[in-house]
Amino acid sequence: MDWKNFFDRLGMNGTHWQWRMMRWERSWRSLLRGNFANSDWSMTKIIITLNLLLFILMIFHGFRYGLGLQSVLNPRGDLLIYSGGQYWPLVLDGGQWWRCITYAFTHGGLIHLGFNMMVLYQVGPIIEQEVGTVRFIVLYTLTALTATLLGLIWHPNVPVVGASGSLFGLIGFAITYYHRVGGPAAHNYRNFMLKWAAFAFVFGLMVGADNAGHLGGAVGGAALGQVLPIGIRGRQALRSVFNLLGGFCALATVASLVLLVFSWFSG
Q1: What is the pLDDT of residues 246-263, one digit of tens each?
Q2: What phi and psi values does residue 86 have, to the nearest 5 degrees?
Q3: pLDDT tens digits, residue range 35-50?
Q4: What fold characterizes domain 41-266?
C-alpha cells in the first residue's frame, strides 16, 4: 500500500508515517516468524503496562468508595475480586472464566505489584528474546492457567491475585530450557533464574503469597521448557502452530480484560 499518498491525503506528514508504517510491518513480519520484538516495544513492556493500568483503576475504585490508602497498600478481598481477582466459586457457578486470566493482572497492594513487576522486568526480556514474542505470549498465558488450576485443587475458596504464577512459570521454563541448551552462558542464565526462584519463594513466604500458584506456574513452565525446541532453528519449528496458539492466547487475554470491564457496568 502507498502509505505516503494515504497520509498525505489526510493532511499528515506522509513521508514520516510511511517510514513508521514500514517499521511496524517489519516488526509484525518478524513477530510472525517467531522472533523478538524490536526495541520500541515488547510483550514484557505491554504486560507491565497492563498490570500498572489495572492497579490504577483498582485504586480509583477504592478511593471512589472511601477505602483511601487501604486500596493502595492492602486492598480488601472484595475490591480484589471486583478488580479481576480469581475466585473459583464465581468461575464455576457464575461462568466468569475470564478470571482465570485477569487475576494475573491484579495485585494485592503496591508492594506486591512492585515486586512482581521488578521480577518481570528482569526475567521477561531474557526469555522473550530467547524464544520470540509469540512463544513468550503462549508461555506466559499457559503458566497463568496452570498456576490457577493448582489453586483450584489446593484452596478453591480463597481469592487469588498476582502475576507471580506466570513469573514462576517463566523461571521454571528458563531453568529447564537453559539446562538443555548447555554451555557456560546458558548455565549462567539457568543459575540466575534459580536465584530468582529462591528469592521469590522466600518473599512469598514472608508475605503469605499463593505458593500453590507459584508451584503450578513453575511446573507448567518447567514442562514447556523441557519440550520446546531449542535455538534459532527451534524457533522456526512448529511456527504456524505457535502463531495460532499465540494469537489465541492474546485474544483470550484481551477478551478477558474486556469482560472484566463489562462486569463493572453490568452489576
Answers
A1: 999 999 999 999 999 999
A2: -80, 130
A3: 555 556 789 999 999 9
A4: Rhomboid-like fold (1.20.1540)
